[in-house]
Specification:
CATH topology of the largest domain: TIM Barrel
CATH architecture of the largest domain: Alpha-Beta Barrel
Number of domains: 3
Mean pLDDT: 92
CATH superfamily of the largest domain: Glycosidases
Structural class: alpha+beta
Shape: globular
Radius of gyration: 26 Å
Largest sheet: 8 strands, parallel
Number of strands: 43
Strand content: 25-35%
């Protein structure tokens, strides 16, 4: 019989009904374990095991507060010697006598077989407490979602860590039918896992004397991603300009250089939406040579007069021409007076030797702000306020890998600063690593200081797909690579791949030629222009996917394995991927102008064409320098915009609604003001398109109050029938229907 002490039952009811634990003291060979079972939300359980004197209270920053909103009182279940709780997704059960636990899905199938919950030992390297926790068996399991700690997207180990463009998270999903996020008592000491032989359990090691396993029955990878977003926080919709092209640079020389670069983009008709500035926007010299004590003349929150003698006027001019300004930030200070003041408050990391990239040992690691201190975040936010008021639109956070949680705390401070200046504006940051839940602040990430070569290009989609499955929805890279010169061909192919990354941004070291397209010859420039034009045509589609990510938690960039889980050919395939459900990118990633493309089950159209490929096999595809192999799944509705210079130019013409027949489908175009958080309270417009393949009709419905000047009012519908392409025009201001002849 399951016994719930009356006091614990009272606590259960008093705690808003959502997370009341059912406790099970359990004797182990080493000491007593306190075991709590909790329904965190309608899909996720928490199994907590503590070897302390009393049960612990989980306080991880990685869990979103809104994910634990009250639900029904957990339903208690009992099956023989097994007792536990049930939610909408399944059952979490334990056998108190045997010290075992297991997980079942909503149909009663076992997805995690009976396994011991945990044992307490010590880390042989540090002699500190460490919990070992096995889960299930790994026979024939495919595992995804732990970040870029593995060579492919199929995971063989996991480790919570951050480095220069590297992020591992203590999470995974397996096709056994569940996902799990494992947390310990210290967020800066994350858990790790590895396979224990071919048929043994997956074994987690967790620093400390307690462990929290957030387990979710999930039969499909897409469902697991959505549930993980509910648990750690859904990603807000980025500002619309973040869907455009961003030109980053280390080596902006002066004011005239900035203005000339923008003029070149406009004169060459190369679309761009943001300039991202390195060190030189606020200091003439990087701080790598600054001693540990700092220098008296270093300006941490100032403007470099060579570039920005009139910052407010200059940024206003950029804005008037459709370009946003993003500035780099470092997690450390260089001014000696400020450093002395903050050291006196205990706000600077006391210990040297923290991981700060290639520049550790030069004094940088002794000037690091401790963002985990609330007063530090308050102080830092105050320093950013004047910069935001001058017009800075976003932040580029670099070299913040000194602790696992630094970037998250850093983003909290930046969110706080923006709330003081314009609480309705969307925060956008780009970071060199991330942690679980950081996406809920409006964070993007890029893959760090990669080399400028074909191997780095070829490996980039794998890393970004791993990040998508680990909770980073807006992944990016230094297009063209950071270190080394580019050939025109390499930069062009990298730009073409970047059309299908969630964030399209180029960057390079100050020692090499910047990634300005007009510097690489007329042929490369023309090809890059064509790629940028395609990126901007895709903005309505990508922006709608961003809204879906906010609403449902589903990633924009996804591996084919997410849509075709039963196809072994795509289990570890990363050289081609999906944006949304129906658009498949297969760009050229090598020095050859051809590649093999695998087509999963179904019919696939060449993008913008009625030429089709049948699924279930691979085909060699050739592509000239200005061509990008991209394909659309039959049954897809793809909304495209016109060619524009900046996203602020939308709509600039009719919406091009492309229908690729062969199956029925639905797609919702979402429009809003592109900059504020008003969409969160419903100030948007939804146009839901439905294609009936049998009737060959397109129906659309319009809902929502938003009627800004940037909405599409007319559309051209193009049906790419294999027997001929048909187009029709229609209004988008009201609902309607178009039927095409069979």
């Amino acid at each position: 019989m399951l016994r719930i002490h009356s006091k614990r039952l009272v606590v259960l009811i008093w705690a808003c009904l959502y997370a009341g634990p059912i406790g099970f003291p359990q004797a182990t060979p080493s000491r007593t374990a306190h075991v709590d079972l909790v329904t965190v939300n309608p899909h996720t359980f928490r199994l907590s095991v503590s070897f302390a004197d009393k049960p612990h209270t989980p306080t991880s920053m990685f869990i979103a507060a809104e994910s634990t909103k009250k639900t029904d009182i957990p339903k208690v279940v009992k099956e023989g010697s097994w007792s536990g709780i049930r939610n909408d997704a399944g059952q979490l059960l334990i056998d108190r006598t045997a010290g075992l636990w297991m997980l079942k899905d909503g149909q009663g199938r076992v997805v995690i077989p009976a396994t011991p919950w945990a044992t307490l030992g010590s880390d042989s390297r540090t002699d500190k407490p460490q919990v070992t926790c096995p889960i299930g068996k790994v026979t024939e399991q495919v595992i995804y979602g732990s970040g870029d700690m593995n060579g492919g997207i199929v995971q063989t180990r996991g480790q919570g860590r951050v480095g220069n463009g590297i992020t591992g998270v203590p999470y995974y999903w397996t096709n056994a039918g569940y996902s799990v996020l494992v947390l310990g008592e210290d967020d800066n000491a994350p858990a790790s896992w590895q396979r224990n032989g071919d048929n043994g359990p997956i074994v987690w090691t967790v620093p400390g004397s307690s462990v929290d396993l957030y387990v979710t029955p999930a039969a499909q990878l897409e469902q697991a991603s959505a549930d993980y977003a509910v648990l750690t926080g859904k990603p807000p919709v980025p500002p619309r300009w973040a869907m455009g092209y961003m030109q980053s640079r280390w080596g902006w020389q002066d004011r005239a250089y900035i203005e000339d670069t923008l003029a070149q983009f406009i004169n060459h008709k190369l679309p761009v939406d943001a300039f991202i500035f390195d060190f030189e926007w606020y200091t003439p010299q990087p701080d790598y040579s600054v001693p540990a004590a700092g220098t008296t003349n270093y300006g941490d929150f100032s403007w470099n007069p060579a570039l920005f003698p009139e910052p407010e006027k200059q940024i206003a001019a950029l804005h008037a021409q459709g370009v946003q300004a993003v500035g780099i930030r470092k997690p450390r200070l260089g001014n000696s007076d400020v450093l002395a003041q903050l050291r006196g408050k205990g706000w600077i990391h006391a210990s040297a030797g923290l991981d700060n990239g290639a520049f550790a040992g030069r004094g940088t690691e002794q000037r690091l702000l401790d963002f985990s201190v609330p007063d530090v975040r308050n102080w830092y936010a105050d320093q950013l306020v004047p910069l935001l008021k001058a017009g800075i639109d976003g932040w580029w956070n670099d070299e913040g890998e000194q602790t696992y949680t630094t970037y998250t705390y850093w983003n909290q401070a930046e969110a706080q600063a923006l709330s003081q200046v314009d609480p309705k504006k969307r925060l956008w940051t780009i970071n060199r690593a991330f942690q679980p839940g950081m996406q809920r602040y409006g964070a993007a990430a890029w893959t760090g200081d990669i080399a400028s070569n074909w191997r780095a290009l070829e490996g980039t989609p794998t890393r970004l797909l791993n990040w998508s499955l680990a909770g980073m929805y807006y992944g990016s890279c230094d297009i063209g690579g950071f270190m080394g010169q580019n050939t025109p061909e390499l930069l062009t192919r990298w730009m073409e791949a970047g059309v299908f990354f969630p964030v399209m941004r180029s960057h390079s070291s100050n020692r090499v030629q910047p990634r300005f397209p007009w510097l690489y010859g007329e042929q490369a420039e023309a090809a890059i222009r064509k790629a940028l034009e395609l990126r901007y045509r895709l903005v309505p589609y990508y922006y709608s996917l961003a809204h879906k990510a906010w609403e449902k938690g589903t990633p924009l960039m996804r591996p084919l394995a997410m849509e075709f889980p039963d196809d072994p050919q795509v289990a570890n395939l990363t050289s081609q991927w999906l944006m949304g459900k129906g658009l498949m990118a297969a760009p050229i990633l090598t020095e050859k102008n051809q590649r093999s493309v695998y087509f999963p089950k179904g019919t696939w159209y060449a993008l913008g064409s009625n030429k089709t490929h049948e699924g279930g096999h691979s085909t060699d595809v050739s592509a000239a320098l200005d061509e990008i192999p991209a394909f659309v799944r039959a049954g897809t509705i793809l909304p495209l915009g016109p060619v524009i210079q900046h996203t602020r130019d939308l709509p600039s013409g009719p919406l091009d609604v492309q229908v690729y027949p062969g199956a029925g489908s639905t797609f919702t175009l979402v429009e809003d003001d592109g900059n504020t958080t008003a969409y969160k309270t419903g100030n948007l417009r939804r146009v839901t398109f439905t294609w009936n393949d049998r009737a060959r009709s397109l129906v659309w419905k319009v809902a929502g109050p938003y009627r800004g000047k940037d909405i599409f009012k007319t559309m051209k519908v193009t049906v790419f029938d294999p027997n001929g392409v048909v187009t029709r025009n229609a209004s988008l201001e009201t609902a309607g229907r178009i039927t095409f002849a069979k």
